Amino acid sequence: MNFFRHSPAIPQQPEPTRWTPEGLLVPVRYANLVGAHVLLYARALSDGQASSDHGVHCLGCTRSWAMTDSTYPRHLDFQQGNERAAEHASACRALPGPIPARPDDATAVGMLTNRIARSRTGFEFSLHIAEFAADRVLLQRTDTWIYQQFTGIADRNPDLLAVTTDTTSTGTTHTYHQVRPRQPATT
Ligand SMILES: [Zn+2]
To answer: pTM, whole model, 2 decimals?
Structure first.
C-alpha cells in the first residue's frame, strides 16, 4: 500500500495544511493522491495530552471515521486511526477542500442532539464525549463546551437524555448523562 506522510514537496493549499480544529490535537496528517489532507485527530485533554479515542477526517471528500469495523465497533485508537487515515489517503482522489465553516452554537447543539439520537440503542447507557468523535472537525468545539450543552439538551429532550446526580458519603457529587433507550426497556 502506498502509505506516505505529508511532505512539503507536495503542493498544498496554504491554510488547511496547518489547521488544527478547535478542541483537538492533530498528531498525523496525510495528503491524498491530489493533495487533500486527511487528519488523524484526538481530543485535547485539559492537561494538554491527547485522548485515547481518535477520529479521521478527510478535508477532500469530507468523510470521517471514529469506530472500528469490527462486529462490536470500538472507538479508534491511535494505531487504528493512523491505519485508517493512511489507507484513505492512498485511495481518495477528492480535490483539497476549504476549512469547514465553524457552525454557530445552535447548529452545533443540533449536531450534538442528532448524534445522541443516532447513538441510541435498546438500552440506557452513559453518554461519553467520544460519542461525538466523528463530528469534531465539523463541530469545532472544545470538550468543555460540549459537556456544558448536555444539561440543556436533556432539558429540551427528556426522552433522549437524562441527567442524574449521585452524592457519595464523602459529599462528592457525580453527574451522569444517560442516553435513554430507543424503546421502553421490557423487563
Ligand atoms: Zn477523502
So the answer is: 0.84
